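Input.
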Amino acid sequence: MTEEMEELMQTNLVTTSRALVYCPICTHTVEADAGFAGKKPQVVPGQKCSRCASALDAALVVQFKQAA
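Output.
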């Protein structure tokens, strides 16, 4: 049963590119890799903020650097 739960929790990002993301800890906008999980933009898990070194897993995607 744990394998089924892990499959459901994994995000499948189709393509990734550089984006501006909002760090909720230091309240600054920093660059990070992000992609789309369906229609929802998400940050690639496991990245750290360049200003405060906190995890960006909960960060919000503000703007992608390149056009779609």
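The first strand starts at residue 16 and ends at 22.
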